[in-house]
Amino acid sequence: MSSDTENAELKDFYKKILALLSIKEAEVAFDSFMAYTELLNIILETHGVELAKLTKSHLFLLLYYFLGCELKKRGIMTEFEFEKIKKEKFNELEIEYNPTPIPTNIGDTANKKNFCGLFDSFLEKLKKQTKTPSCIGVVK
Fold first, then answer.
1. Where are the beta strands (DSSP E) in 61-109?
2. With left for phi above 0 and alpha for psi between -120 and 50, is residue 11 left, alpha or beta?
3. If you average pLDDT over residues 27-32, what whole number do you get?
4. What does the domain layout of the chain look like in residue ranges?
5. What single DSSP character describes residue 106?
6. DSSP one-letter code for 103
7. pLDDT at residue 17, as a whole number
């Protein structure tokens, strides 16, 4: 794959991810996005994820979760809330509460409340899927 093709695909990912996160290009420059992709590449390598086995869809989700996590940590992304407080009014009584999602698995809600949890879960899943099993012995 040529460098121009890779750069065009990354620009496409950049625009789509920023649109999904409701962030303007002025808030996260393409150079910053490229720095995040390099950091993500290093994280994947150190976690033992085989990059050659990842599809474009895997890469897009990883970038989406990772960028969402990092921008949330840095305070750039403030409007996208997983744990938004809901307000409801009953006649003259106003109630504020945190809606709790219905868990499908035990421990499921803890990981799905933020981008960082989603990123960590997806990274572990990919690590298991892409890991080449080691050879234990030879059968004759």
1. 86-90, 93-97
2. alpha
3. 93
4. 3-80+108-130
5. T
6. P
7. 93
Structure token pair of residue 107: 């421990």
- More reliable by pLDDT, 111 or 78: 78
Task: State the CB neighbour count (10 A cutoff) for residue 117.
Answer: 16
Neighbours of 114 (CB within 10 A): 19
Amino acid making up residue 133 = P
- Tokens found for residue 110: 């803890």
Instruction: Give the residue among 85, 80, 53, 72 at the shortest CA–CA distance from 119.
Output: 72
Express each pLDDT in 30-74 by its tens digit. Answer: 999 999 999 999 999 988 888 888 899 999 999 999 999 998 888
Q: What is the pLDDT at residue 81? A: 53
The pLDDT > 90 percentage for the chain reads 29
Q: Which residues contact 8 (CB under 8 A, 6 or more apart)?
A: none
Angstrom distance (rounded) from CA 118 to CA 122: 6
Could you give the CA distance from residue 36 to residue 42 in angstroms, rounded to a whole number?
Answer: 10
131 residue type, one letter? K
